[in-house]
Amino acid sequence: MATRNTRSSSWTPDARAQLVLATIIREHLVTGEPVGSRTVSERCAHAARWSPATIRNVMAELEEAGLVEQPHTSAGRVPTDKGYRFYVDHMLGRARVPKSDVLAIERALGEVEPDPERLMERASHLLSELTDNVGIVFAPPVTDQKLQHVEFVRLTDGHILVVLVFAPNIVQHRLVRLDESLEQEELDRAARYLNEEFRGQSLHAIRAELARITCEQRAFYDELQRRAALLCERSLADTDERAGEVYIDGTANILTKPDFADLETLRALVRTLEEKRRLIKILNECLARERSSVQVIIGREHRAPIMRACSLVAAPYRLTESSFGALCIMGPMRIEYERIIGLVGHVARVVERKLNSGTSS
């Protein structure tokens, strides 16, 4: 047998090694315990015909290749992140969503009105509930969305209610206060100007264009444009252009995972879930390579060190040609990859369809 840790990283397990690896992974997913050669022989029909020495040699080869590891000298093997990656990339067939999951998704999301906030809250809860992990849904920054309509409503306390309607089917309300008092007629004129001149553009683009008009056409910059620019600026005053809304459900689930028994790791994970900007960065990195399919990031593939005990299964959903949100499952590396990949992809398609059509799934 070759010396440990010397096998080439380009080594590809043959059919027999793949059967052993798959058996180790499936058994470990169920029990969370190291898997020994006797268990492999009992759980794998083909392995029952192999000698104990043959199985041990194959397990040693997998360990040399970094696909499994031996946590204790006398213990069996557990999969590594590299082993899970090989399993996901080469040993899973086309992800199929169990009928029970499809029915649960239909019950949870099928009757939800196309209110994005309610839909995303429900989707994050559903992902968490079906997988016993953390469900996360990310909505892209509102400043990237196409404006369909804006209204300004003068309130009795001196505040102005800003109603922003974006494509598709996204409505946001904001309260702003100006130093000067504007009558409702003046607010209506400013809203008409924005709707007529800038409909179909993003708030970010509208603000930039109004700033350009201010600088380049100051001599012709009238009171209407000034008010529109001021209202637009104040409407975005508390908006982080790089962030969007994040809906999280099931944080308490990680407290029950033996994989996160280390208290420092557990605290750091909870802090990460509480930090919106950091979490959005992690999700964006997860989807940076591909915007059209489910992505799986496992263990040390994460850039953020605290995530290296975790797996993320994420899928994008499209709002417009250039605007994407994402939803994902976060859990330990020991998760049901085959089921979760299919589940996340299916929920993403349902969310995208409902947001863009406003019809039932």
Describe the overall structure.
By secondary structure, the chain is of the alpha+beta class. It contains twelve helices and ten strands. The strands form three sheets. A five-stranded antiparallel sheet has the order 7-3-10-9-8, with helices on both faces. Strands 4-5-6 form a three-stranded antiparallel sheet. A hairpin with a 5-residue loop joins strand 4 (146-154) and strand 5. Helix 1 crosses helix 4 (81-91) and helix 5 (99-109) runs parallel beside helix 12. The longest helix is centred in the C-terminal third of the chain and has 21 residues, at 337-357. 34% of the residues are buried.
How do the strands and helices of this protein lay out in sequence?
Layout: H1 15-31, H2 37-43, H3 52-64, E1 68-69, E2 78-79, H4 81-91, H5 99-109, H6 116-131, E3 134-138, E4 146-154, E5 160-167, E6 170-176, H7 184-198, H8 203-216, H9 223-235, E7 246-249, H10 263-274, H11 276-287, E8 295-298, E9 310-318, E10 324-332, H12 337-357
Helix pairs in contact: 1-3, 1-4, 2-3, 5-6, 5-12, 6-12, 7-9, 8-9
